[in-house]
């Protein structure tokens, strides 16, 4: 297929140059957005009288026919074309002749591609947000089921204080809700129409840029033509937001991997979302969680690619910017792939409540509650802390827990202890008494669940 810029050149393009220069392999996915942008542009050209209205109508009809033919499989995209813009315009010209050649009036591929990628990523954000909302719903349902399931909470990967599994899941839900908000912010700044910026300096034609923006659902237009064609902040912002999504999925995956191990055995993954070993018949591996954890680095790399690509580019458009699409599309596709597997994995996993409860009974995670019991008796917290620390050391020496330590041993350390201490350090009571907003008592977990469900409606 002939290049759109062939007139200046006397020699055919070397195959090596064409292969290196071509972007059809990755920008062909934007065919629908490219056609929709061209339909809006052609409609505006006819409405403003830049081209005859009858020709504008023919172009719009021709573009719609091409779109339908591609979607139905009747028309295959020519992977030898330089890019998707060249292919669509070439096909239109083949069908309409001279009329098709009028489509590119008052437009450059620079503002055209800036438009196409905004339209494409806008659609991708909607899809990713939808998948994140599905994960939020799964987390809320699982958290409601386990709002009172006791488990140890950790700091430094050491058992720290008693919480519930529902509360733990809602921590990840809070992260995902922030991800959804961030993607909404990215979309807001992305939803500005650059078409009309031309190659870099606008055009002498009397374009109605606001008409095109309205037709394509944009909130506004760009107001500097140089920036209009060379801005890729929205790609970087999206890659950054997606990187944070992957941080959250990777952290969650790390915990799933630990919880599946025999050392924890807090959860059992469904067979449909696990794999085995080629040599060890007993193995059941959390490969989905491990792959999600690994693929986070891939998305971080895409962000680094975009930052590095843009950092040294003088205004306005440079060919370096063709690299934006491979990086951001890879980040988008990776996140979608991870969510497609991760959400049903969480939805179908079995929670081993007794193992969680047994783990919570060890490690003195009710020690803070023991100290708070003494504070309730009038002892200053720092003194109560010291007394409880001595009791923990005593339990370790004797191979006991705070629950099994005899009352007389308590009273040797501090005379304020009485039999009510055993009620105070009961794990269920420890959790249920944490009623401050944001704490893990079941009522608060349900409040978090309601808030999350309301936010994604």
From TrEMBL:
Localization: Cytoplasm
One GO CC term on file: cytosol
Keywords, sorted A to Z: Amino-acid biosynthesis, Arginine biosynthesis, Cytoplasm, Lyase
UniProt main location, coarse: cytoplasm
SUPFAM superfamilies: L-aspartase-like
EC number: 4.3.2.1
InterPro entries, sorted: Arg_succ_lyase_C, Argininosuccinate_lyase, Fumarase/histidase_N, Fumarate_lyase_CS, Fumarate_lyase_fam, Fumarate_lyase_N, L-Aspartase-like
Any one biological process term the GO annotation gives: L-arginine biosynthetic process via ornithine
Superkingdom assignment: Bacteria
Residue ranges annotated for the Argininosuccinate lyase C-terminal domain, each copy included: 364-432
Molecular-function GO terms, alphabetical: argininosuccinate lyase activity
Residue span(s) of domain Fumarate lyase N-terminal: 7-301
Gene3D superfamilies in alphabetical order: Fumarase/aspartase (C-terminal domain), Fumarase/aspartase (Central domain), Fumarase/aspartase (N-terminal domain)
Pathways per UniProt: Amino-acid biosynthesis; L-arginine biosynthesis; L-arginine from L-ornithine and carbamoyl phosphate: step 3/3
Chemical reaction(s) catalysed: 2-(N(omega)-L-arginino)succinate = fumarate + L-arginine
Keyword Lyase in annotation: yes
Family matches, as PANTHER family: ARGININOSUCCINATE LYASE
Family designation: Belongs to the lyase 1 family. Argininosuccinate lyase subfamily.
Protein name: Argininosuccinate lyase
Organism of provenance: Eubacterium coprostanoligenes
Chain's gene name: argH
């Amino acid at each position: 297929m002939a290049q759109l810029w062939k007139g200046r050149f006397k020699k055919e393009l070397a195959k090596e140059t064409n292969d290196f220069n071509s972007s059809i392999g990755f920008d062909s996915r934007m065919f629908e957005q490219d056609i929709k942008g061209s339909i809006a542009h052609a409609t505006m050209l006819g409405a403003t009288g830049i081209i005859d209205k009858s020709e504008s109508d023919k172009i719009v009809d021709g573009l719609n026919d091409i779109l339908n033919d591609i979607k139905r499989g009747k028309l295959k995209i020519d992977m030898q074309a330089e890019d998707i813009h060249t292919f669509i315009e070439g096909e239109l010209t083949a069908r309409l002749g001279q009329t098709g050649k009028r489509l590119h009036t008052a437009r450059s591929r620079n503002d055209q591609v800036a438009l196409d990628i905004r339209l494409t990523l806008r659609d991708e954000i909607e899809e990713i947000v939808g998948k994140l909302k599905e994960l939020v719903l799964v987390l809320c349902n699982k958290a409601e089921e386990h709002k009172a399931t006791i488990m140890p909470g950790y700091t430094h990967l050491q058992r720290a204080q008693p919480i519930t599994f529902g509360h733990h899941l809602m921590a990840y839900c809070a992260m995902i809700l922030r991800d959804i908000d961030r993607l909404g912010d990215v979309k807001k700044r992305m939803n500005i129409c650059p078409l009309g910026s031309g190659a870099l300096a606008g055009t002498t034609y009397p374009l109605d840029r606001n008409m095109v923006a309205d037709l394509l659902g944009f909130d506004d237009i760009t107001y500097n033509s140089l920036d209009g064609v060379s801005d890729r902040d929205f790609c970087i912002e999206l890659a950054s937001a997606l990187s944070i999504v992957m941080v959250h999925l990777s952290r969650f995956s790390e915990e799933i991997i630990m919880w599946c191990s025999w050392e924890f055995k807090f959860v059992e993954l469904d067979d449909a979302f696990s794999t085995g070993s080629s040599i060890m018949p007993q193995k059941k591996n959390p490969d989905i969680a491990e792959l999600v954890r690994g693929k986070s680095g891939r998305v971080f790399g895409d962000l680094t690619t975009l930052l590095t690509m843009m950092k040294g580019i003088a205004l306005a458009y440079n060919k370096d910017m063709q690299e934006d699409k491979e990086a951001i599309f890879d980040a988008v596709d990776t996140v979608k792939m991870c969510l497609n597997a991760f959400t049903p994995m969480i939805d179908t996993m079995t929670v081993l409540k007794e193992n969680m409860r047994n783990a919570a009974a060890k490690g003195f995670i009710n020690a803070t509650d023991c100290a708070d019991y003494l504070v309730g008796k009038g002892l200053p917290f720092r003194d109560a802390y010291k007394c409880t620390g001595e009791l923990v050391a005593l339990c370790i020496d004797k191979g006991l827990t705070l629950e099994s330590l005899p009352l007389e041993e308590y009273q040797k350390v501090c005379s304020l202890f009485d039999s009510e201490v055993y009620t105070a350090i009961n794990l269920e009571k420890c959790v249920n008494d944490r009623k401050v907003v944001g704490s893990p008592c079941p009522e608060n977990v349900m409040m978090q669940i309601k808030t999350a469900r309301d936010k994604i409606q």
